[in-house]
Each structure stands twice: as structure tokens, then as C-alpha cells.
Amino acid sequence: MSLENLSINFATVRQAGTFAEIVDACLRHGITAISPWREHVNAAGIEEAARIVAANGLRVTGHCRGGFFPASDEAGRRAAIDDNRRAIDEAAALGASCLVMVVGGLPNGSRDLPGARQMVEDGLAEILPYARQRNVKLALEPLHPFYAAERACLNMLGQSLDLCDRLGEGTGVAIDVYHVWWDPDLEKQVARAGRNGQILAHHICDWLVPTTDPLNDRGMMGDGIVDLGRFRAMIEQAGFAGPQEVEIFSHRWQARPVDEVLATIVERYRTVCQPGAVAAAAA
Amino acid sequence: MSLENLSINFATVRQAGTFAEIVDACLRHGITAISPWREHVNAAGIEEAARIVAANGLRVTGHCRGGFFPASDEAGRRAAIDDNRRAIDEAAALGASCLVMVVGGLPNGSRDLPGARQMVEDGLAEILPYARQRNVKLALEPLHPFYAAERACLNMLGQSLDLCDRLGEGTGVAIDVYHVWWDPDLEKQVARAGRNGQILAHHICDWLVPTTDPLNDRGMMGDGIVDLGRFRAMIEQAGFAGPQEVEIFSHRWQARPVDEVLATIVERYRTVCQPGAVAAAAA
Q1: Which member of A9, A142, B192, B261 has the greatest number of CB atoms within 10 A?
Q2: Does A160 touch chain B (CB under 8 A)?
Q3: Interface predicted TM-score (ipTM)
């Protein structure tokens, strides 16, 4: 099976080192699609990162990440806008399919969730013309409700698509199985996103039982309770045929040699992530 | 301010001891509404528990808990039905306003979430005639999506109300701020539940930032980021004027003397849980 539709998010293999070192590790395993984080890109320098991408014919399935709009004061909100413009520039330089937006949660000390959501919408509306100008699509990523206060007050796929509809062209969603697998309205909203061409990225990992740490205990595909074959079938049926991007925040996998992690990913991608795949029952 | 609309869920003051000891602790603080767990009731004996309730004129705002319908095999599902009938008997004996239903998650090793949800619906449909006969209302409690795999595959208020609509008379919801505060559709669904007389319980605590343990790090009202005054106003506006039931699963509060916990609850109930209350900004 070709690996052209397998992408590695750099968060999964942080231990490999620099931008160049992570790319080298991916190439060793036949993986040619990547999704870097800004810290890697900026440490390498954007020109050098873009050069590595071009020289190796890499596909950049997303740039991580823009967002974090809500802030306690106007200065904080302006700073976020400026930072998002820089992220758009980087995504453009890398030729990324999208800029992934983790929109931010409540400002420090705030209890005003509707207010934070409004700040998110206002911030996105403000950067969108620039993103369109640079031809960078904004991929709104609904995050699991566990992160609503601290990381993203966009928590449902339907909610995110409603926002995309209000914002218009140049926006879509990143659908990460970790965040949305439990959503009772999942099938309907995935179909809707596909129908409107709003699926910009498909992120995968697994949900472990038990999940001991909501931040850094994501599972390797096949080790948890998500039916990833069925999930992928649903995504493809909705019309998205792009890469599955592996994003595993995990203390466990971070502690293993990068080549072991990537070899495991390739094997699981082939065995449990394809439409129709039936994984062995979860442990 | 009268405390007649303040109820204590026994999980909050487990350290106080037995059913009788927890009731005594509540009464010391002027609290006359309770929500016991089955373990407390059964350790005391249902007749003795019912006697204590009657002798002290207590209001039982819920009996905790029925549910956990999904199971790997038919024997497991039958055992759950039988156990739920016993829980209904207990709720009837106590004169509880409702039996709280934590419906259960995926059966061991399963990745079939729609299947688990169907098992929940089938289980509820099976016990409902008995609950009606005993005049016990079933309060479906949507749990935070963090618990979808292990505790409850009902995760949204709207989803739970849809299920109530299908099941019909004798069902409703327990709305726990911890589980639903982040829901983008909250106001609409609370109003809908109220309109249809489906709000059976209102549980309170707070969401801490950070939440270090999704199971046992719930916050005391006022210590987190939920606008509890606004939340209560929304509930009352929807037509529910019943008690606020304090359910705080917390290693921190479990370690404190029960009288300190109850005194703090009474103070916070008065200062941050009333409609229009404005809590100091969250730390």
C-alpha cells in the first residue's frame, strides 16, 4: 500500500529533533507528507524549512497552528491577530494545505464563554481577508470539550461548521478523531462538511481506555476504542480523499525511539486505518 | 436565605460516614435535601434509610444511580436490567424525585459506540414501564464527553432529550453543570427541557482550571470558570425551581473535615449560585 496518504504531525515525533531531522526520519520510512509546528519551522528558519519541503517534494498537510484569539484586553487580542498573520505567512511559504486553528479558550480569569466564542469569531473574521490573499485556508479544529476552558472554545464539529458558514470562503475544518469520536451528531456533520468542501484535514490517533492524562495520553491507532476503519470510510464517503495525519500527543510514545514510533504508525496505518479495516477488539 | 433549595449529594461528603452520619452532618448545617448513593442506602438497609428520611422530613432530590446498560453479552444486559429494577424500588421507598441514570459506556473491548447507545435505549425502554408503575422518574444524565467510553455514552443534553422524547412519559434529564457547561447548544436545550417539563435535577459544582483529574478534581462552586449565577438563571427561566444539588467529586474536598465542606457549600450557595450572582473572577 502506498504511503502517499499518510502524514506525520511533528508533535508525534518531537523526540526526533529539528525540522530537518524529523523530515529525515519520515523519509526513512517512506513518508512524504508532514505537518510541522511553528516552533520547528521558526527554529529552522522559514526559508530553510521551505527549501527542505521543496527539495524533497514533501506535501504539507497543515501548519500548526494559529488561533488563541481570546485575551483579557485589546492589546492581547491585537497581539494574537499579528501572530496569526505571521502564521499565515509561514503556511504560505510552506505551501501548506491549511493553517490549523486552535482557537483558544477563556481569557485569564474569565467566566464568559459566549464572550470568548465571540472573540474567536471576530479574530477569525479579521485575519481571513489576509489568509485569502495569501491563499491559505483556515482549518478550524473543534477540540474535545475537555479543552473548552483552556485551549479551544470550539468544541463540536457542527458548531465549527456553523462558524465556517458565517465566515465564508477560505475556511473549513480539521477533523481529529480524538476530539470528535464521541459526537452523537458526527455522521451528519461529517457529511455536511464534505458536501460543502469544508474538510481540510483528517487527524488520527486513538482514544485509550483508560485515558490517564487528557493532554498527553493519546493512543496509537489500534490501541484504543475508536473504530478508525469506519471513521475513515465516513470521511471518504463525505468526499475527502486527502491524507490521514497522525497526531499523537503521548508521554509513552515520546519516550520511544522515533524509528520504532514511525514503523508502528506505518503498520497501523495499513492495518487499522483503512475503510473496512476491522481492528482486533480493544484491550 | 432559606436553604430549602440546597441539596447535598452524598458523593460530596463521603468522608462523613454512614447514611445516618451524612444526614446528621447535613442537618447540622440546616440542609434538609439529600441525594444518597445506593451503597449508603444499602449499607443502612432501605427500611432504615427510608425511616431516617421520613423522621427528619427530608427531601430526596435523586437516588444515585441506575444505568450501566451496555454489556458484552445477554447475561450482562439482563443483570443490568435486574439491578435497575432494584434501584427503582429503592428510589420509590425513599420517595426520591428521580432515579439518576448514568447509562454506561462501551462494553469491554468494544468499539461500537452506536451499538452501545442502542443498548442504552433498549435498556431504558425495558425498565421504564416498571419505573412508571412505581412512580419513579428516570433522570437521564448526559455526562461530559470525557466519560463517553467508560461511563456514559449519553454526552449531550440535546441527545438526551431526543432520547427522552422517544421514550416518553416518566423520563427527563439531570443537568449537571460540570458535564454541560461547555455545550454550544446549552441555552436552547435547557429551554427545550424546561418547556417539556423534562428537567428533573440540577447538579452543581465548578470546573477548575486546570482540571488535573477528570474524575476527582471537580471544583467547589466559585473556584472555577463556570458562571453559576447565569447558569441558575437559565435553569429557572426554563421553569425549574427545584433544588440545586451539590455533587463534588474531589480528592481535595474529600480530605477536609465534613463540617468545613458543608459550611463552604452553604456560603458559596448563597454567594455565587443564585441567579444574578456575580462571582469574583476565577483565579
Answers
A1: A142
A2: no
A3: 0.96
